[in-house]
Amino acid sequence: MDKEKMNEIYQENAAMIYKYLCGLTQDRDLAEELTQETFFQAVKGIGRFRGDCKISVWLCGIAKNLWHKELEKRSRHKTSPLDECMPSNENVEKKSLDNLEKLEVFRLMHSLDDKTREVMYLRLAGELQFSEIAAILGKTENWARVTYYRGKQKIMKGMRAWK
After folding, report:
1. What is the pLDDT of residues 20-35, one digit of tens each?
2. H or E stretch covering 87
3. Which of 26, 61, 70, 161 is most buried as measured by Cβ atoms within 10 A of its Cβ?
4. Can you tell me whether residue 50 is helix, strand or coil?
5. Cβ atoms within 10 A of the Cβ of 78, count?
6. Cβ neighbourhood burial of 145 (10 Å; 0-12, 13-18, 19+)
7. Is the dihedral of CA 28, 162, 156, 94 positive or negative?
8. CB atoms within 10 A of CB 63
9. How far apart are the C-alpha atoms of 32 and 14, rounded to whole Å?
């Protein structure tokens, strides 16, 4: 694949991969690093891309595998918990007031079981279709829909209790 086509793939998918990894890692710097590594691995392995799914699904799979490798590495080295993934803004005080509800949603998402949380991040941050989520997680599209719906219901219930 030529350099121009890979650049186009990067431009179309980098933000989505970053958001997905930011949701998984809860660390902006690590998400940025893993996003770059995802595309590096994609360039190296583009010959193995079979084309039986969207390129975004394939890239999410690479990103997810890199995150799992990072978790394994951290568990061997006993590192401290990851920092929250918070956007940086100049008017922090105003933004923090505006983001209280958003933070609560992410806190509630973080309390979900791993699979439900991953479906929620893929759908909300990654903006993926249920069929793409199913392909990434090796499940059916219906499973992805039901899991998302149940996760959304738990978050809505938690938000009602929070208010």
Report:
1. 888 888 888 998 999 9
2. none
3. 70
4. coil
5. 6
6. middle
7. negative
8. 28
9. 10
- 72: helix, coil or strand? helix
- The pTM for the full model equals 0.56
pLDDT tens track for 46-101: 888 888 888 888 888 899 889 888 888 877 765 444 444 555 444 555 555 455 67
Handedness of CA 152, 153, 159, 162 (dihedral sign): negative
Q: DSSP assignment of 90-151, as one string?
A: S-HHHHHHHTHHHHHHHHHHHTS-HHHHHHHHHHHTS---HHHHHHHHTS-HHHHHHHHHHH
CA proximity to 31, closest of 39, 23, 40, 21: 21
Hey, what are 31's tokens?
């998400």
User: Of 125, 128, 131, which is closest to residue 144 (Cα–Cα)?
Assistant: 131
Tokens 């490798």 belong to 69
Alpha carbon distance 122, 129 (integer Å): 9
